[in-house]
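Much of the work behind modern protein science is quiet bookkeeping, done one molecule at a time. The protein below has been through that process, and both of its lines are reproduced in full.


***
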Amino acid sequence: MILMKYKILVLDLDGTLTNKKKEITEHTRETLIRAQEAGVKIVLASGRPTYGIMPLARQLELDKYEGYILAYNGGQIIDCKTGELMYENVLDPAVYPYLYECAKSNGFQILSYKDEYIISENADDQYVQHEAFLNRMPSKTVENFLDVINFPVAKCLIVGDPEPLAQLEPVMKKELESKMNVFRSEPFFLELVPKGIDKARCLAVLLEELGMTPDEMMACGDGFNDLSMIEYAGLGVAMANAQEVVRQAANYITLSNEEDGVAHAVEKFMLNAE
């Protein structure tokens, strides 16, 4: 039995766990299975919806090894073994009409996620299609978006050309300041999420539930939305391809996501296989 300092491993997906093809390499997969066999708990932490994370969770056998999914950048925590929704933070339905009007009046599409589908009023829109590709989820056209989102919604996305979307962002931020967070994750994606959504905050909830401390956690990421968890973790690991601010905040910079950087860090700090 390996006595490890770090007992929980938190992994961002795009740009971290997966390569440019959005795939986990066989070497990385085998390394993560070995870590789990040694007792490490794995958390997949992403801005993706739960259904967009599930295929990767199955590849890593998180159901067998009692891992977790942190979806919507911290809007949900799912126990992979039981399927239980352990935590959820959702949008106030009172804001839906305003979000919809902002999209419609500016010629943008607004989308959300229902079961395994991405729903919008135009599934063929290029940016809706891109979100579908990123999440490996089918896209469905609905007649009226507002009529369909009659369930708890963890995230909406307004998608469109970067320049006009950049002009809409500050307007919506000001209007919704006290109610929710508005930010662009890509030049063409405007994220609309509950107030206080943050990977580190959500991980604090999970650690408390598991009786673990941040000192026992290693977190790997590459993007702005990974910054909070990299600073929060006992060992924050930035990918070589990470944003500069993330690299500066990290305790260690590993190889890139094209070079099995996650496997390299796990071998170095968890499996002591240098």
Q: What stands out?
A: Residues 114 and 149 are 8 Å apart (CA to CA).
